[in-house]
Design goal:
Layout lengths: L1 H8 L3 H32 L15 H21 L3 H7 L8 H19 L6 E4 L3 H25 L1 H4 L2 H8 L21 H11 L3 E3 H29 L1 H9 L11
Antiparallel strand pairs: 1-2
Helix pairs in contact: 2-5, 2-8, 3-5, 3-10, 6-9, 9-10, 10-11
The structure holds S-adenosylmethionine.
S-adenosylmethionine (SAM) binds next to helix 6, helix 9 and helix 10.
Length: about 260
C-alpha cells in the first residue's frame, strides 16, 4: 500500500512542466524589474554605471544613427510581438501561459542592449541653473516614474508582466481573460503609464542632444503604440472601450467627462 501512495503522489511530467513554466515566468519578471529600475538611472543619470549621457565616443552622425536603430529595434519587438496576429501565430509553438513573460523578457533584453550600445550626444540643449527649479524638475521626472509603477498596479501589474498567467497554469487553471478597467485616474486619462513615461523622459534639468533624441523618439513611438493598442482594445472590449474613448482623454485630462 505505501508503494501505491508514493506512486500516486509523484509529480507528473505535466506538473514539472508547469513548475518550469512558473520559474521561467519568475526569471522573466526578475529581468524586467532589473531593466525598468535601471531605466530610471539610465535616463536620470543617477546611480548606474552607463547612462544616456555616457558611453563610447562616436561622431554625431554615427551616434544618431546607432541610437535611432536601437530604439527602432525595441519598437519593432515591443509593438510587433504585442499584436494579435503575431500572438496567434507564435502561441502555436510557445505555450500560452509563458507568452506574456517571453514578450516581457524580449522587451527587457532589447532595452538592455540599448543601454549597453547607446552612444552619448553630450551637447547641452538646456541646463537649469536655479537649484530649486533643478530639484523641482528632477522630482517631476521621478513623479513620472512613480505614475508608471502605480498605474501598472491599477491595471494589473502581475498580469501585465506575465506572472498571473504562469501562476494560474501552475495551479492547473486556465489563463484569466483580460478585464477592462478604469480605476482611479484611468477615469480621466486612457494612458497614464505612457503619460508617466513622457513626463519621466522630458522632465530633465539638464537636457543633452542624446537625451532629447531619446525623449522625442520614445514620445513619437508612444503615440504610434497608442494607435495600435487602442485598435486592439476596441476589438477586445467593443462598445465598452468605444464609450470610454468618447468620454476620456488620451493623455492630458483637459476636457470634462461626457
Ligand atoms: C503597457 S500597458 C499600457 C496601458 C495603458 N495604455 C496606459 O498607458 O496606462 C498595455 C496593456 O494594457 C492593457 N490595457 C490598456 N488599457 C486598459 C484598460 N483600460 N483596462 C484593461 N487593460 C488595459 C492593454 O490591453 C495592454 O495589454
Amino acid at each position: 500500500m505505501p508503494k501505491v501512495n508514493s506512486i500516486r503522489q509523484a509529480p507528473s511530467p505535466i506538473r514539472w512542466l508547469r513548475l518550469i513554466a512558473f520559474l521561467y515566468g519568475l526569471v522573466a519578471y526578475g529581468v524586467f524589474l532589473f531593466t525598468i529600475v535601471y531605466a530610471i538611472g539610465f535616463v536620470s543619470g543617477i546611480g548606474v554605471p552607463k547612462t544616456i549621457d555616457t558611453g563610447p565616443e562616436a561622431s554625431a552622425i554615427d551616434a544618431f544613427s546607432i541610437n535611432t536603430l536601437l530604439m527602432a529595434l525595441f519598437a519593432v519587438q515591443h509593438s510587433g510581438m504585442a499584436r494579435k496576429g503575431f500572438k496567434n501565430w507564435w502561441t502555436r509553438y510557445v505555450p500560452n501561459c509563458i507568452e506574456r513573460g517571453t514578450y516581457v523578457l524580449m522587451a527587457s533584453l532589447c532595452l538592455m542592449f540599448l543601454y549597453w550600445q547607446w552612444r552619448p550626444l553630450p551637447t547641452v540643449v538646456w541646463r537649469v541653473e536655479d537649484p530649486d527649479i533643478f530639484v523641482m524638475i528632477a522630482t517631476l521626472s521621478f513623479i513620472g516614474w512613480a505614475t508608471v509603477f502605480a498605474s501598472t498596479f491599477l491595471i494589473d501589474h502581475f498580469e501585465l508582466f506575465g506572472l498571473r498567467q504562469v501562476a494560474a497554469n501552475l495551479r492547473g487553471r486556465g489563463i484569466p481573460a483580460p478585464q477592462f478597467k478604469t480605476p482611479l485616474y484611468y477615469k480621466f486619462v486612457r494612458h497614464p503609464i505612457y503619460l508617466g513615461f513622457i513626463i519621466a523622459f522630458w522632465a530633465a534639468p539638464i537636457m543633452t542632444i542624446g537625451h532629447l533624441l531619446f525623449a522625442a523618439v520614445t514620445t513619437t513611438y508612444i503615440f504610434v503604440g497608442i494607435f495600435f493598442e487602442e485598435r486592439d482594445l476596441l476589438e477586445l472590449f467593443g462598445e465598452q472601450y468605444r464609450q470610454y474613448k468618447r468620454q476620456t482623454c488620451m493623455l492630458i485630462p483637459w476636457r470634462k467627462l461626457g
